[in-house]
Design a protein that fits this description.
Structural class: alpha/beta
Strand order of the largest sheet: 3-2-1-4-5-6-7-11-12
Oligomer: single chain
Bound molecules: 5-O-phosphono-beta-D-ribofuranosylamine
Number of strands: 12
Shape: globular
Distance between the termini: 27 Å
CATH superfamily: Formyl transferase, N-terminal domain
Amino acid sequence: MTEHKPLPIAVLASGRGSNLEALMHACNTGQLPLEFRLVASDHAEAAALRRAESAAIPTVALDPSGYRTRRDFDLDLFARVAASGAELVVLAGFMRILDAEAIAPWTGRMINVHPSLLPRYRGLHTHRRALEAGDHEHGASVHFVSAELDGGPVIAQAHIDVRADDTETTLAARLLPFEHRLLPAVVKLIAEERLGLHDAVVTLDTIPLEQPLRLVDQALQRA
Ligand code: GRF
């Protein structure tokens, strides 16, 4: 077990929640010192909420149609996140564009996992777009969140080869287990207070990253 104090986190998820599960598993097996303060969703039926409930993690589902504007929704959501005592927010399949004002207080304290080698393929359908482009390599990124969709500074990436017979489905399925290793590995560095963000530059042990860290086997390495 690590000697670091558990990091209070909130996870935002719109759907399945397999990345949330990966974080919960890493925590339960003593690999990651976390305290899950809140799992929030914009879909009451999200499987991610059921996973959290089964582990007695507090949950909230907010219906965007109940708010006058996107900003109103985001301000309410992040007020609840702040009230939970979370010090880190993890977006794990949270399928919404976020309001710049609402997320400003979370700069450097909010990360997202995205299924592409950013800056390639921000937004949706990343596997299809990688195949259509004829890429030989695909991957996943974890980045600090900025107001720009999938545009914040990249912390770490996992790379996989694209096979000649890959389809959108097979590529997504082969990438997902790498996401499940990448995200906890990044959260661990944050829990250990080793990662920073200064003037949009990511630092590890106070030294700027010139390239995103790279997942090799289970470990993150400087590229
Ligand atoms: C993942 O592929 C993640 O990279 C993307 O949305 C998907 C969420 O999957 N942002 P899950 O809900 O964590 O299973």
